Amino acid sequence: MIITSVEFEPCVMPLEDKNWTFALGTASTSRGYIVRLTSDSGHVGYGYSNSSPHMGSTFESLPAELERFKPHVLGKDAFAIEAIHMALDRSLTGASQAKAGIDCALHDLCARSLGVPLYNLLGGKVRDKVSVLRIVAIKTPAEMAANAEKLLAQGYRYFKIKVHGDVEEDVARVKAIRERVGEDAHLTIDANQSYSPKDAITAINRMAQYRLDLVEQPVARDDLKGLELVTRSVPVTVEADEGAGTVDEIMTLVSNRIVDAVSLKIQKLGGLRNALAAARICEAGKVKYRLGAHVGTRLGNAHAIHLAAALPGVDYACELGEFSRMFNDPFAGIEVVNGELAVPDGPGCGVEPVAQAHDRKTGAA
Question: pTM here?
Fold first, then answer.
């Protein structure tokens, strides 16, 4: 099956909250590029490249990266995913988000051509649905508590509280949210590298009374000694995210037992192939893992839910529902129901362009 067309187009989704803030910045839109591969058999595969500067690629840099990769995909056998990856890596170091879009489109194309769900190419599914962890963006403690309560009313039971490095304010945020959502809800925090090691230890130990399940990337991504110190000094699971941006980095974290857990993201790791490799490293080193925030269109989250379905170690809620706070999604086919996302069983990743889904529903030609 030969790839005859490689296309990509911008995807800009306005956020429900125009002042959505975390420790690394503020956003009013989620931006990226849709990758579309067509084969000589007439099948089409879709992938998504997310624009996240802290992962390496911006909305402005992605088109040039994707254009550079185009000759290494066009005219190739769609099933030669390993060979295509080798060519992309030789062509350009990094550019993980662009590589992820191509990798996911290749997997989607192959699965659709075979008429099987994507998870069948990843080892088959071990679960039918995954609990969704929703992000509560930085605001005042009272505002964040109110937003968490709204999510609770929608059926969510897992929450990720964004914090920004001020110990007193951050402890107040966790306290306010715990009091508002009750004892049965699951709370995590994400500092996005904003603490010093000692402030992280102080904050987390104070927050522990409010029953935190997990703390994500408390210190700078390259401060491995500091991260290890935090892990050994608090009673809460410590997870790496920005510091787990490549398979090599995850190998270092796991082999030295610097953290308790790793957040796997298809975009930062460069695709499904590398995410699978990272998961196997975690399994071998007895370090926990889950799927972190796949921000953007349902398309990117569809690939992630298939990966989560195929990985035996995913035993905690994953961040695969942030599309619910965005408008103008160009893809349809998955929805969060009562705080859970079901694994699609149709061919490929299980979503399709909105216009195509509408035609299918109305029976239009």
Answer: 0.96
